[in-house]
Amino acid sequence: MSLLTGPMHHHLDGHKELTAHNPVKKLPEPDVVWIPLVNGNASCTPLVNVGDEVKIGTKIAERNDHFYLPLYSPVSGTVMAVEKKMTTAMKMADHLRIQNDHKGTVEKPFAPIDYEKATNEELLDFVKNAGMLGLGGAGFPTYVKFLKPENVDLFIVNGVECEPYLTADYKNMMENLELLKTGVLAFFKLSKAKKGCVSVKEDKHDLIAELKRIFEGTPIEIRTVPDIYPAGWERTLVLLLTGKRYDRLPIEAGCIVSNASTAIALGNALVNGMPITHKYVTVSGTGVNTPSTVIATVGTLAHDVVEACGGYSSDDCILCAGGPMMGRAIPNDQFVVALETNGLTTFKNEPIKTVACLRCGKCTEVCPNGLQPVRINAAEKIKDVETLKKLDVMSCIECGLCSYICPSKIDVTEGIRRAKKYLALTKK
Ligand code: SF4
Ligand code: SF4
Known about the structure:
Blueprint: H1 17-20, E1 25-26, E2 32-36, E3 38-39, E4 42-46, E5 53-54, E6 59-63, E7 70-72, E8 77-86, E9 92-100, H2 120-129, E10 154-158, H3 168-175, H4 177-191, E11 195-201, H5 205-214, E12 220-225, H6 234-242, E13 255-259, H7 260-272, E14 278-284, E15 292-297, H8 302-308, E16 317-321, E17 328-330, E18 343-348, H9 362-366, H10 373-381, H11 385-390, H12 401-405, H13 412-427
Parallel strand pairs: 1-15, 10-11, 10-13, 11-12, 14-18
Antiparallel strand pairs: 2-9, 3-4, 4-6, 5-8, 6-7, 8-9, 14-15, 16-17, 16-18
Helix pairs in contact: 4-7, 10-13
């Protein structure tokens, strides 16, 4: 029985103690950054040429479809090349390579504004031009959620961070409470919601106390959710907080949801007139010598971030962009920290003995979306498109629970990813 169809509550060992209580390290500025010219499935058009000088905050690219997203340079220096590199989504894409001159010259791309005095139209324009995007991993341009906010009952700031090992949102919130408050109140104004809340896990006692203090006297409540996975997934969170389900978007349940780090980024843009140039990134797992949450410049090589955390603990490690459940294992560490990157988790590559499926049905029991992973895997093996469609494979959120629970140690989620890719290709 799934979380969305019954009382399935799945507690995972979060291993957050590896990084939650260590100080956050600010990494040195890298000599070179690579900025992925991609946002979700869309590519971005460069607005600079090879040889151009840029400053921190220079607009260097824009998303090139019907959604708008500007990209800003996180360093000052020279555009050296457009190069193909693998992204955190394991796709080859163009990246702008920028040589850092380490002068730290800044060009504020927009002026700070007072969100209380600004009209909602001005505020929406600000969110759009500041390049705000879903920092919970989705990376979708944020302004789109606030284009026509009608009948919004609850604006939710998602600070749940349910993915094991990751503490980037937690550390970012603890260290930037004032910016969080500004961003949350600005988003709340834009949402025109009747109520607003910041939602975190019930075991984060220190954070809950700080949030209650900072939001005292504002319309924002602090709402806690149990320590279950995937409580931070939008559908689960909306269900936990409102008891409502929806088909496509949270607005169908009267909710707009935004990530806590996105709210902090908006607070920083409003107060300091600066876009997102740095990210809180958790580097954790058995594969790294000194698990830490760090502040890294956008565009820093994953290899350099791991090295700054003491390097790999073994010659044979698996590296995931993101957490172990929803992140992707990437075959090398030459990809970069992108705007939406929250974590790098790495594990010693220990041989896993896989046995045949026991038909135990556990993967179906845990699926928060009510899917039948074992049947999807069987249909994927024989490329049975009609059955894959019937089994609604495209609605899988790749939460990883079916692999986690499988007693036969089958990577069920990977089979489902393959099925989704195959189905997407057959539609073209
Ligand atoms: S990865 Fe997909 S199929 Fe597997 S449990 Fe999560 S949502 Fe369900
Ligand atoms: S959990 Fe694993 S063994 Fe059990 S039915 Fe699913 S794939 Fe088969």
